[in-house]
Amino acid sequence: MNKQFSLAYLTVLGCPPDEMIEIAARAGYDFVSLRPIYMGLPGEPNYSLSDNPDLMKKTKKALSDTGVKLLDIELARIYDGLDPKRYLPAMESAAELGGRHVLSSIWTDDRNFAIESFAELCDLAKPLGLTVELEFVPIASVSTLAGVLDVLHTVKRDNAGVMLDMHHFHRSQDKVEDLDAVPREWFRFLHLCDAPAEIPTSKEEMTHILREARLYVGEGGIDVASIVNRIPEIPCSIELPNTQRSKELGYAEFARQCLVTAKEYFAKHPREEQDTLDKKKLVEV
Asked: Are 134 and 118 in contact (CB under 8 A)?
């Protein structure tokens, strides 16, 4: 099965949805991963589709004209004081555009509130035909695979799953063997990127790399293949923010390079080869 790729919003940070879709189509992506949930960050454009009918119309037309599909929307953060219904308009827009998933992460230390809010988010998404993928982030409250699994096992929602980001998985120092205990159906898409092997000791440096300086797949020190090939074949959303390169190359060429380098990497690290190595290790043990 050929890998499918999505162009994630942070890779072309600030790019309008319709333009992003056209860039993805020209570069050869199968999907886009949009951010119609306005987060109010400094300098962040508001691409809320539910609040902007003209932008919704342009986005729908771009998807129809190009054949690119909407993979997921972001970011349904769980934070103190959140009313999950805040995300309903964005999820309705995603469903109207044929989207499949909603990306979420947890930024509150109140476990009970996090569980209740995430469960409600899943319940709101289900009638729309959407699944909700929980991502662990090294600078967030839920920062490890174990933390995500705790939430998923507690909420017991059949449209909930886990979303692995290569940068975050490496920084959390989780082990690929831990992925074997995760129900296969909980994997629906992943975030693809690379980063230096050395894990920053400061939150500031961690945040800088996470948001502005990730690397092409195969360029850094993360053993991406060992992670990706350990789980089922699912779409890879390339989330690779690199401020310097995107400015130098422009959105279109940077997005193209992200895809080209990812495909080259996986051509050198096929799934069959990884499966053989895993079986050999088992025999040796």
From this structure: yes
Whether the bond into 259 is cis, omega within 30 of 0? no
Residue 162 in 3-state DSSP? strand
Say if residue 154's pLDDT is above 90: yes
Ordered structural domains, the chain, with CATH: 5-284 (3.20.20.150)
Half-sphere exposure of 268 (CA within 13 A, CB side): 9
What pTM value is reported for the model? 0.93
Tokens of 236: 């890879």
Contacts of 172 (CB under 8 A, 6+ apart): 136, 138, 143, 144, 145
Indicate the SS3 state at residue 241: coil
Query: Which pLDDT tens digit goes with each residue over 20-70?
Result: 999 999 999 999 999 999 988 777 899 999 999 999 999 999 999 999 999
Distant-in-sequence, close-in-space partners of 156: CB < 8 Å, separation ≥ 6 = none
Q: Are strands 5-8 and 236-238 parallel, antiparallel or unpaired?
A: parallel
pLDDT digits (tens, 9 = 90+) for 73-96: 999 999 999 999 999 999 999 999
